[in-house]
Design brief:
By secondary structure, the protein is mainly alpha-helical. The chain has two domains: 3-86, Arc Repressor Mutant, subunit A; 90-122, no CATH class. 60% of the residues lie in helices and 11% in strands. The chain is built from five helices and four strands, in the order αααββαβαβ. It has helices spanning 3-15, 18-24, 29-43, 59-86, 106-116; strands at 48-50, 55-57, 90-93, 119-122. It has a two-stranded antiparallel ribbon with strand order 1-2. The chain is rod-shaped, with a radius of gyration of 24 Å. The relative contact order is 0.11.
Length: 123
């Protein structure tokens, strides 16, 4: 699924007007209309009711809108997550230690580590 098409869908749904949506997306209306048609074909459903003067969301479009927004938010979060993972600020850290380790020191170290790197899960 092309995320660009999903972003177009959200913009048209917010504007309820292809011309305004196209302007907001810095494109012209015909390619936007074609992109929405392509998305509808890919999904196998009509998302909008179009008349000469109005655009309305179909019931399936209304129901899909919240899910598409959630999906786009998750996609937008991938880059920062990948960068955090690459810097070691997120992910999973597996620990092993021998029984002779200082139990007085280890809890404080783990607590400090958790404060410094809240995105890292200790395993």
């Amino acid at each position: 699924m092309d995320l660009r098409l999903l972003r177009y869908f959200v913009t048209v749904a917010e504007e309820m007007h292809f011309g305004r949506a196209a302007s907001r997306l810095a494109m012209t209306q015909p390619p936007l209309s074609q992109a929405i048609r392509a998305l509808e074909e890919a999904l196998g459903v009509a998302l909008f009711v179009r008349t000469k003067c109005t655009v309305e969301l179909m019931p399936v479009g209304k129901d899909l809108l919240a899910e598409v927004r959630r999906l786009l938010a998750a996609a937008d979060a991938l880059r920062p997550l990948a960068q955090s993972l690459a810097r070691g600020e997120a992910g999973v850290l597996s620990l092993a230690f021998v029984s002779t380790a200082d139990y007085g020191l280890l809890p404080a170290l783990l607590r400090d580590f958790g404060v410094r790197y809240p995105g890292v899960r200790l395993h």
